[in-house]
Amino acid sequence: QVQLVESGGGLVQPGGSLRLSCAVAGFTLEDYTIGWFRQAPGKEREGVSCIQAHYYGTSYGGSLLGRFTISRDNAQNTVYLQMNSLEPEDTGVYYCARSGTTGWTSCLNFEYEYWGQGTQVTVSS
Question: What is the mean pLDDT of residues 53-82?
Answer without folding.
Answer: 92
